[in-house]
Amino acid sequence: MRKDTVASCVFLVAVTLQVLSPPAVADCQPEWLYGPDRQIPGVGGSVHALTTWDPDGSGLEPEWVIVGGYFEVAGDVIASNIAAWDGTRWRPLGTGTNSSVTALAVYNGELIAGGWFTAAGEVDANYIARWDGTQWQPLKSGMDKAVYALSVYNGALIVGGYFTTAGGVSANRIARWDGAQWQPLGTGLNYPVYALTVCNGELIVGGDFTNAGGMPAEYIARWDGTHWWRLSNGMDDWVHALTVHNGELIAGGGFTTAGGVEVNGITRWDGTQWRPLGGGMEGGVASVWALTVYDGALIAGGHFTAAGGVSANYIARWDGKFWAPLGSGLGGGATFPSAYALTVYKGGLIAGGGFASAGGNASVGFAHWDGTQWQSLGFGMNAFVHALAAYNGELVAGGGFCTAGCVMAKSIARWDGTQWRSLGNGIGSEYERVVALAVYDRELIAGGHFTSAGGVSANNVARWDGEHWWALGGGTDYVIYALTVYNGDLIVGGAFHTAGGVQADYIARWDGAQWEPLGSGMNDEVHALAIYEGELIAAGEFTTAGGVAAERVARWDGTQWLPLGSGIGSEYDYVRALAVYDGELVAGGKFNIAGGVAASYIARWDGAQWWPLGNGMDDWVFALTVHNGELIAGGEFSTAGDVQANRIARWDGIEWQPLRGGIDGGRVFTLTVYDGDLIAGGDFIIAGDNVSAYWARWGRSGALGDANGDEFVGFADFAEWDQCASGPASVDAAAVSSADCLCIFNSDGDADLDLADWAAFQRVFGE
Description:
Elements: H1 3-14, E1 31-32, E2 46-53, E3 64-70, E4 73-74, E5 77-78, E6 82-85, E7 90-92, E8 101-107, E9 110-115, E10 119-120, E11 123-124, E12 128-131, E13 136-138, E14 147-153, E15 156-161, E16 165-166, E17 169-170, E18 174-177, E19 182-184, E20 193-199, E21 202-207, E22 211-212, E23 215-216, E24 220-223, E25 228-230, E26 239-245, E27 248-253, E28 257-258, E29 261-262, E30 266-269, E31 274-276, E32 281-282, E33 287-294, E34 297-303, E35 306-307, E36 310-311, E37 315-318, E38 323-325, E39 330-331, E40 338-345, E41 348-354, E42 357-358, E43 361-362, E44 366-369, E45 374-375, E46 385-391, E47 394-399, E48 403-404, E49 407-408, E50 412-415, E51 420-422, E52 433-440, E53 443-449, E54 452-453, E55 456-457, E56 461-464, E57 469-471, E58 480-486, E59 489-494, E60 498-499, E61 502-503, E62 507-510, E63 515-517, E64 526-532, E65 535-540, E66 544-545, E67 548-549, E68 553-556, E69 561-563, E70 574-581, E71 584-590, E72 593-594, E73 597-598, E74 602-605, E75 610-612, E76 621-627, E77 630-635, E78 639-640, E79 643-644, ...
Antiparallel strand pairs: 1-87, 2-3, 3-6, 4-5, 6-7, 8-9, 9-12, 10-11, 12-13, 14-15, 15-18, 16-17, 18-19, 20-21, 21-24, 22-23, 24-25, 26-27, 27-30, 28-29, 30-31, 32-35, 33-34, 34-37, 35-36, 37-38, 39-42, 40-41, 41-44, 42-43, 44-45, 46-47, 47-50, 48-49, 50-51, 52-53, 53-56, 54-55, 56-57, 58-59, ...
């Protein structure tokens, strides 16, 4: 039906609106807004296990990839440590597990998960559980310690790990489950089992052990159904992955030799002896954590940057003669990026691990190779946001990410209200980051820890003129943490000692042409800057400013540094954030005293002395801003004042209050206001009850008429208008209550929902 036809059909309903008695405008409450741009492109953590499972056998339901690891969300759903992906969307499996999942298998048509958890769903499940398609069930009393590997052998489920008992029965690191009870495999092994497979009718076991069944067996052994046997002289270090390729057993791990032969992390057993595969793996502490066979080739994943002398980032393929990369491989997201798990699904290869991108596309912990290239799995950022600012009507985010939305955006991106876009070629390279943003002389300034911007050499600070990146003189010799503008100059604070080659300890100014120090600077790092009563305020870890005692906070009057009372905190404390609220200076950080009075993590300066803000927080404050006349604090705290306020809270001038469900896990590093809404950035992935990866938006739901909160006005919202016009709102459309009608559809801010609001909504709907 055409929109104008639908509109005319509802017109007669609309004219009845003036007889409604809608709630007062004051009843409109802000909330954490959902947006597809804030989903995780992958999972919000690391993946350690993968398998495929068809939940209804030969039924209509498609086969799923089951993903286990250490994460809280998958795509746009909350999923604790285990989730299912059907090739299009993510699904939780009940309420998941209470700790990490490290092994997966299918046994008797049911999904089996093992790991470090002690509960699955609503039941106790000691390190192992089964999912029957509806709910989690324990496998008897489970194990006494963690499970690392699962396989099926001779009709039984084989479990390997760190445990010494299974179902109360002695079973050293390995046991079998026949569907009813646990049994040991001989006398087991002396140290943990990490990998299991079946080859030539025998069970092959790899791990960190040196003894199997009382006999020497260095890191690998075979079980023939009755006895344990060694495979030649084994390896010189742990085995973490096993598979079979072209009839041969393949082993991967942290070893460098197998059977006395140099093999570098990967080897093959031809039935008699161990042999190398090319030159093996290289790059740092090279190791192989996962193996599978895909399209006739052997696929190896792990922590390495080359295979057989060929560049291959953390994943490579072996065709029987040579190693080759899979595109540009995996990268980012961890100090020790790795592929930990591999499986084949619907003609493609799935990789899981501790990474943030695949082939340059955002893929956190989970990636899909279609045989030719890596596919993007989502639209959000793939790593933390550390800085936010508004510039030229757009929201700019800086941090440690390499993708935003569907675009490459190294460390910096801009949000135009609809989608993320890059700023040139971005800033820096892997492991470099943007930490601070400001606007100076109509240009965007980015500071942090980087050596280039847009391909131009730029040491830790750069400017964006709307089209290109430029350096600011010679920049600084180390990281910049804070930026502001004071008396027409750009002020930078951080951990540096020189700016533009001139000595400038921890703080400097750029006058548009050159760098200059501010007095003799500080004796330690500067983390925050602000302007208060016409003076520059600097705060951080220092105890002197310009040679004058100034405990972690000081003021610059344009000529010299001066303290603010007796300062803040004591040894090892610091101030991380500053803001001006209600005519006072507010400081947040890690401290419990300010000006000699108790002040937990946050304090205010009235121009003469320091005061606490209520009872403060129970943990660090990293960010401060002002929104709608209230002070907003973000950080790592879980309470503010005497109320629960997860990572974010608001001070209304009298007391601390939460922002509904707050931020779940992670930390809030930065806060700003954009388009009337409060924006938070950090390393969190949940805000309120929604997935909100690394940035979140707090405000009234979307645009005028956006009833379901998807930031798009469509037919679902039109149906809600109909409900608001004719009576109480439908709870089926995003749980909109009758009290929300005025908030969602009121355009002129009066106390009536009338034809003026209908006309405004109709215009938005027709765009």
